[in-house]
Structure formats: structure tokens, C-alpha cells
């Protein structure tokens, strides 16, 4: 990922799940760095497809990243993201 470019942000009022939109876009091989943001999710999903309560007024987003790390170390990305918030 190049830090010289800005993230492309896709904004929505209401979606079922930003994760589902990100998954579909990633399967279409869109470029890295797309952020899907929603004011409200009706069927938000967390890790392992767990339900994610996400009412209006929160910060609901998914980011498409394509890191060059070993899949066995990918959990570190979640940890780093949690620390940054």
C-alpha cells in the first residue's frame, strides 16, 4: 500500500453490512485502500460473522487492505487497529 495516495471513501446512509460490501468489492479485485462507511448498518457483522449492533450515530466502516504478511500473523492487524482507536 502506498501512503502517497489517499483512501477512497464510499459513503452510505444505511447498508446491511459494510463488511459484506467490502467482501464483494475485494472479490472483484478492486484496489487496496477503499473505505466503506455507513451511518447505520441493519445487519452489521463482526469477526466470525457475529452480529454487530450498529445504530445510527456510530462509526461503522470497513477497509479493503491487501497486506503482504503471512496469513498466520493477520490477527496482528486487528490488534493494531484496536490499539489505534
TL;DR of this structure?
With 85 residues, the chain is of the alpha+beta class. It is 24% helix and 24% strand. The two termini are 21 Å apart.
What's the helix and strand layout?
Blueprint: E1 8-15, H1 18-27, E2 34-41, E3 60-63, H2 75-84
Parallel strand pairs: 1-2
Antiparallel strand pairs: 2-3
Written overview of the protein:
It contains 2 helices and 3 strands. With 85 residues, the protein is of the alpha+beta class. The protein has one domain (8-84): BirA Bifunctional Protein, domain 2. It has a 3-stranded mixed β-sheet. It is globular, with a radius of gyration of 13 Å.
The CATH topology is given as BirA Bifunctional Protein, domain 2
The CATH superfamily appears as: Bira Bifunctional Protein, Domain 2
Q: What is the annotated CATH architecture?
A: 2-Layer Sandwich
Q: What's the average pLDDT?
A: 86
Number of helices: 2
Order of helices and strands: EHEEH
Q: In oligomeric terms, what are we looking at?
A: single chain
Name the features.
single chain; 85 residues; alpha+beta; BirA Bifunctional Protein, domain 2; three-stranded mixed sheet; globular
Amino acid at each position: 500500500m502506498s501512503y502517497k495516495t489517499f483512501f477512497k471513501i464510499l459513503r452510505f446512509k444505511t447498508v446491511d453490512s459494510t463488511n459484506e460490501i467490502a467482501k464483494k468489492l475485494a472479490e472483484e479485485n478492486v484496489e487496496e485502500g477503499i473505505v466503506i462507511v455507513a451511518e447505520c448498518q441493519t445487519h452489521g457483522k463482526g469477526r466470525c460473522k457475529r452480529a454487530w449492533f450498529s445504530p445510527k450515530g456510530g462509526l461503522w466502516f470497513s477497509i479493503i487492505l491487501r497486506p503482504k504478511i503471512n496469513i498466520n500473523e493477520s490477527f496482528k492487524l486487528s490488534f493494531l487497529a484496536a490499539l489505534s482507536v
